[in-house]
Amino acid sequence: MNTESDGGSGGDGEDTGEGTGPALGSRAPRFIRRSRTLHLSWQVAVFVLGLAVVVAGVIMLPLPGPGWLVIFAGMALWATEFVWAQLVLRWTKRKVTEAAKKALDPKVRRRNIILTTIGVVIIAALLAAYVAKFGPVLPWHVGQ
């Protein structure tokens, strides 16, 4: 009945651009896709579970924890059922791959090493100037 969720309808142009990745669409078991009511219930459950995982990841961003990893796990859950999430994950993967290739470029690596070295030298000079002026005493009183 629900042939659009069998994958492949409506997103083939995006999929053939890279030549990788499965067809777009629902990855629910076939017996679930046959029943519209069951498939809709399945999609609601996947959406709620993915939303809970994404919200947990967003909460972890300022707190200790692997926030971005959890957010991408929630997106991966959504991508099992929703084409928009599959497209977002493909776009993210493409951008991360491009950034990794760019970061491994010898010119970019050399520039980053030089900038990091300059930053460390400036911080060390400021720290040395502080210690020379005030001594090794912290600017606040701890435990008195």
Topology, please?
Blueprint: H1 12-18, H2 30-34, H3 36-60, H4 67-79, H5 83-103, H6 106-134
Shape descriptor: elongated
Q: What is the structural class? A: mainly alpha
Mean pLDDT: 80
User: What's the Cα radius of gyration?
Assistant: 25 Å
Number of helices: 6
Poorly predicted sequence stretches spanning 5 or more consecutive residues: 1-18
Helix content: 55-70%
SSE string, helix = H, strand = E?
HHHHHH
Number of separate strands: 0
List the domain count as a whole number. 2
The portion of residues forming beta strands comes to under 5%
How can the largest sheet be summarized?
none
- End-to-end C-alpha gap: 75 Å
Protein name: Membrane protein
Organism: Streptomyces natalensis ATCC 27448
Keywords: Membrane, Transmembrane, Transmembrane helix
InterPro entries: CHP02611, Uncharacterised_PGPGW_TM
